[in-house]
Amino acid sequence: MRGVRRWASPAIAVAALAVVIWRLGTGPFLAGLKAVDGPAVLAAAAVVLATTLCSAWRWTIVSRGLGVRLSLPAAVASYYRALFLNLTLPSGIAGDVHRGVTHGREVHDVGRALRAVVWERTAGQVVQAVLTISVLLVLPSPVRSSMPFVAGAAVVVALGVVGVGRMRMGGDGSRLVRVRNAVVTDIRNGVLRRNAFPVVVLASALVVLGHAVTFLIAARTVGVTAPISRLLPLALLALLGMVLPNVGGWGPREGVTASVFAAAGLGADRGAAANTDAVAYGVLVLAASLPGAIVLLAGWLSHRRISRLRARRRVAIRPEGAADA
Question: Which residues of 72-83 are buried (b: 16+ CB within 10 A; e: fewer)?
């Protein structure tokens, strides 16, 4: 069963991408790849730098609330490395797991460090959802007529979560109660405390804005000339596809973008070419994430150097021990 779950997500992503290619052909993807130029890459790199700084800032704030130290420079380097790994490995979360485990080993508390990663990413996705719903309620989009119902459902879910958090449960020693209490404590200390919540919301909003701007750069690069007021809702809808299963950044997101572009009358082929984490957008983000590859290589070389030094010390000590024996 565990093996099935392990391969289900990549299989779904590959199947979704195959359907998109089957419906649209490879032409839009090749056109999007060829359209990427130097100025677009530089612009995307600047935006990704800003979003990485904001994401790392959010991570340090949440980590501090959970009692694990994390400096901003270390967080930025680790976030760049995570971004690169997320874009090049299956599942799209390998980099986040890696930065959580690495940070946990540094502070000798892997569990708490991983929880900090989970809550800072969750906070970012909640802010993204709120901003997306707000924009889609105001600006024209293929789903505007459904947004009042979506907004109402989101409010109900939010109230339900708050209610569960405040609910008194019997049997304080039960596992369910302990987990609920641990989650509530983490959220209260890591995200909702007075000097953290505004920073988390601001940083997350800037990250969402940065992703949307990168999408708009990709759209302009492949020749989409629609006004920003028309593209922004589509960008936010496409970015929601980032939470779906993927393989190295490829998967259902391509289908989401192609669908929303077609529904907006811009053509499914344009949507595929400007897709998040695919072709134009994917090339731009991958190029902008290359500092993460440098961080990964530097860490690997440092680890090898330390291993060699330890091996030399063991060799140097061994003869003395043998003589004493």
Answer: eebbbbbbbbbb
How much is the mean pLDDT over the chain?
79
Q: If you average pLDDT over residues 206-233, what whole number do you get? A: 87
Closest CA to 47 of 215, 219, 204: 215
Nearest of 31, 41, 43, 34 to residue 270 by alpha carbon: 31
Separation CA 297–CA 67 (nearest Å): 29
* Residue 8: Cβ-neighbour burial (10 angstroms; 0-12, 13-18, 19+): exposed
For residues 289 and 84, the answer to whether their CB atoms sit within 8 Å is: yes
Residue 247 dihedral angles phi and psi, to the nearest 5°:
-125, 105
pLDDT of residue 312: 72
Sign of the Cα torsion 92, 232, 124, 77 reads positive
Of 114-118, 213-217, 294-298, give the range with the top mean pLDDT.
Answer: 114-118
CB 116 within 8 A of CB 190: yes
Cβ atoms of 31 and 70 closer than 8 Å: no
* pLDDT at residue 58 is higher than 70: yes
User: What are the DSSP calls for 239-304, one per residue?
Assistant: HHGGGS--BTTBSHHHHHHHHHHHHTTS-HHHHHHT-TTSHHHHHHHHHHTHHHHHHHHHHHHHHH
CA 221 – CA 273 distance, rounded (Å): 10
**Residue appearing with tokens 């809550």:** 119
* Tokens of residue 252, six digits: 């259902």
Portion of the chain with pLDDT greater than 90, in percent: 39
Q: What angle do CA 84, 70, 292 make, to 5 degrees?
A: 15
Rounded distance, CA 284 to CA 274, Å? Answer: 11
How far is it, in rounded angstroms, from Cα 93 to Cα 87? 9
User: Distance (Å, rounded) from C-alpha 222 to C-alpha 34?
Assistant: 9
* Residues 281 and 274 sit within 8 Å (Cβ to Cβ): yes
